[in-house]
Fold this protein.
Amino acid sequence: MKKSAPDQPVYAQIALDICARIARGDLKENTKFSGRSMMSSEYGVSPETIRRALNLLQDEDIVEVHHNSGVVIKSKENALKYLQQYSFTNDIHNLKLQLKDLMKERDLLDQKIVLLVEHIIDLNDRFSYTDPLRKFEFEIPENSSIIGLTVKDAAFYQHTQATVIAIRRGKQMILSPGPDARFEAKDVIIVIGSVDLASRVEAFLAK
């Protein structure tokens, strides 16, 4: 039996397997195959599970169930369509699982970044006299020319030689903002750089 999505019920898995047998030609159109009792032994499930699988295939116009006399294969074409639809649905399911895993990885990476930034800030505060790099905080004036620009578009580092490690916006702290982070008025930007950068940053923000 084909491996299927983990949340797919057993009767649907059996229906899928029967479709695959029809598509391969193991079960041919207009031929009859064994009923529920024999198939339940073959698949190791109850006759009720087989009944639900066959009803599903009958609803898709793939087989025709004749009670007490077996099942007739009605359409190989519809069996192929069913398999294709399952493949698409399963692909979507797998993509969602991949997305969920990536989001977990992103959350873990964000946590590591937060810890690293906090560690840098802590070390910088404790060893400010020996470390050539210092942490500074600047509030963006309401008339600053960088308002509405991203870190990249403002060419912040190129103009100041300071690296933005965080942006405090009201009660929100944006740690390790990327190049697409956008500056807003009254943002408090936290940067690291050499001890002589303060005047350059202040002049740049005042433009």
